[in-house]
């Protein structure tokens, strides 16, 4: 939300490459799938959710929470689709496999998404308190009116 989904796609891709090469997390064979779900789909969804919520409610903290939480969840829904396409169940095919993967992810990712949404709002509050000028430059908050005082 600070820099938009295009910047996040680049940054997310770099982080995923670093994880694949240096931490053996995911690996190079899954880099494309991980980049799509985590560095493209999630950030774009979060960006759209933020702007839609702002248009509908005008409440920035709710928009930030929903964008972070739902963007996180969408990442794992897309990962479930990818896994179901790669490993369809012998009985039930894609749908059965998707249901299984999404159900497993839901156990861990729903509480994490809620936690990440809350943490993102806390970080936003901190940024608003300590860096309002930078947020104004990014056009994320409106500056306080300047009072011209004569001495």
TrEMBL record:
Transmembrane segments: 6-24, 31-50, 62-89, 101-127
Xref: Gene3D superfamilies: 1.10.1760.20
Keyword Cytoplasm part of the UniProt annotation: no
InterPro entries attached to this UniProt entry: CbiM, CbiM/NikMN
Main subcellular location: membrane
Membrane topology field: Multi-pass membrane protein
Subcellular location: Cell membrane
Keyword terms of this UniProt record: Cell membrane, Cobalamin biosynthesis, Cobalt, Cobalt transport, Ion transport, Membrane, Transmembrane, Transmembrane helix, Transport
Domain of life: Bacteria
Protein name according to UniProt: Cobalt transport protein CbiM
Taxonomy of the source species: Bacteria, Bacillati, Cyanobacteriota, Cyanophyceae, Nostocales
């Amino acid at each position: 939300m600070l820099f938009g989904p295009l910047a996040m796609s680049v940054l997310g891709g770099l982080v995923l490459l670093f994880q694949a090469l240096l931490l053996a997390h995911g690996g190079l064979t899954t880099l494309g799938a991980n980049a799509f779900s985590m560095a493209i789909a999630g950030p774009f969804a979060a960006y759209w959710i933020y702007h839609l919520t702002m248009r509908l409610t005008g409440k920035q903290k709710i928009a930030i929470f929903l964008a972070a939480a739902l963007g996180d969840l969408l990442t794992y829904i897309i990962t479930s689709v990818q896994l179901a396409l790669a490993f369809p169940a012998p009985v039930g095919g894609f749908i059965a496999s998707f249901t299984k993967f999404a159900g497993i992810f839901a156990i861990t990712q729903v509480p994490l998404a809620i936690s990440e949404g809350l943490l993102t709002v806390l970080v936003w509050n901190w940024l608003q308190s300590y860096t309002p000028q930078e947020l104004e430059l990014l056009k994320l908050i409106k500056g306080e009116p300047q009072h011209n005082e004569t001495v």
